[in-house]
Design goal:
Layout: H1 2-11, E1 19-23, E2 26-33, E3 38-44, E4 47-53, E5 60-63, E6 69-76, E7 80-87, E8 91-99, E9 104-112, E10 139-144, H2 159-176, E11 180-183, H3 195-204, E12 213-220, E13 229-234, H4 240-249, H5 253-271, H6 274-298, E14 302-308, E15 320-327, H7 333-337, H8 340-359, H9 361-364
Parallel strand pairs: 10-11, 10-12, 12-15, 13-14
Antiparallel strand pairs: 1-2, 2-9, 3-4, 4-7, 5-6, 6-7, 8-9, 13-15
The structure holds zinc ion (ZN).
Length: 366
């Protein structure tokens, strides 16, 4: 037991529980829960008490920079965790549970209390505001793989040019839908000449409560002829051929081996962590949606959705995926990737899937 308790505590800094989002008119606390978790909510005066069974979290006591929530306190117990949320005067909380059958997400929205006077009228449950209704649009991080001194895969096309082009097309399409976009790079550049630092800077953009989603774009290559589209979410893999690809995307050579080893360590820890697993289900769902959309519009070979220890998405606190949109060195697919119309199709499919994912409140909460 002691060992597992230690493991929990070592893991916990990577997980925000709750994740706190400041919005115009409301403050949102999101609790990612394992499938089997249960909870009760009670409130007394200005303290909201949430008792979670089957959830282990490290103690925390955090102030919140909000005019509605003063602080929250996380208190671990024998069989669960209690969270006390201290509201500011005149604030009230509304809770809503999202459950897609694989993971649960409890959303607590703290709003300004309505004026009293109709207290006897039973209130209908108020749905959590949908992102489209928020004044703050959802924020998507687009990561065009490689760049600058790092060309990535080279074949009929050069990976860094294709990923940037598709990334910029995706940016335009998402922005047209009112989604805010942050690019890890917007031109042919590396973020650092040192690949570890470069990937670390991209990865840092998955670690923010101000962003909703991260998509990394890559182009594949293979020694044996291969073609098709595959989409990844973070996790371990046992496939030696996939590991070779992961090592290449993680910087290649000795550094790629080292970063892959580190990412696999994170994946193995996450595999023992029900909360991390619950989080990864959202990334898996996003991966599936983006993958299906791209296969649907291109008719490309379906190489599936899998988990793999890609360094750039190893610590994501938001749904994060890595797409491999085709093989640079395949005699049919390489030239297809060189065609702007084909790249536009890929970007449209990604944009459609991402906006659909974000429109579903269960996934978009932050
Ligand atoms: Zn790549």
């Amino acid at each position: 037991m002691r060992f597992w308790a230690l493991v929990w505590f070592l893991l916990l800094p990577a997980l925000a529980f709750p994740r706190v989002g400041l919005h115009d008119g409301f403050t949102r606390l999101v609790f990612d829960l394992p499938k089997a978790a249960t909870y009760t909510v009670s409130s007394e005066k200005e303290t909201l008490t949430l008792r979670f069974q089957g959830v282990r979290q490290a103690p925390a006591d955090e102030e919140v920079d909000s005019d509605l929530v003063a602080s929250y306190q996380v208190v671990p117990g024998a069989s669960g965790t209690v969270v006390y949320v201290r509201l500011k005067p005149g604030a009230e909380a509304k809770t809503q549970l999202f459950d897609d059958g694989e993971a649960k997400r409890l959303v607590v929205d703290v709003v300004r209390s309505a004026p009293t006077g109709q207290a006897s009228t039973p209130k209908a449950p108020v749905p959590a505001p949908k992102p489209t209704m928020n004044k703050k649009p959802p924020v998507v991080v687009i990561d065009p793989g490689h760049g600058g001194i790092d060309p990535g895969a080279v074949g009929y096309v050069v990976e860094k040019a294709i990923t940037l082009d598709v990334g910029l097309r995706l940016k335009r399409l998402l922005e047209a839908q009112g989604i805010q976009v942050v690019m890890t790079r917007s031109r042919d550049m590396h973020l650092s000449a040192d690949k570890r630092t470069d990937l670390g800077m991209r990865a840092a953009m998955t670690d923010s409560s101000k962003r909703n989603l991260f998509v990394s774009i890559h182009v594949n290559s293979a020694i044996r002829p291969a073609q098709g589209i595959e989409v990844y979410y973070f996790g371990e893999t046992m496939s030696p051929s996939l590991l070779a690809q992961v090592i290449r995307e993680n910087g290649g050579g000795d550094l790629g081996l080292q970063l892959t080893r580190e990412a696999r360590g994170v994946a193995q820890q996450a595999a023992r962590d029900v909360v991390a697993q619950a989080n990864l289900q959202f990334s898996r769902r996003l991966a599936q949606m983006v993958h299906d959309a791209m296969i649907g519009v291109t008719g490309a070979v379906d190489r599936g959705v899998q988990s793999a220890p890609f360094y750039v998405i190893r610590n994501a606190r938001i749904p994060a995926i890595l797409t491999e949109i085709g093989f640079a060195n395949h005699p049919q697919e390489g030239p297809r990737l060189a065609d702007p119309n084909y790249r536009e199709k890929l970007a449209q499919a990604m944009a459609q899937a991402i906006s659909k994912f974000l429109a579903n409140g269960a996934f978009a909460q932050r």
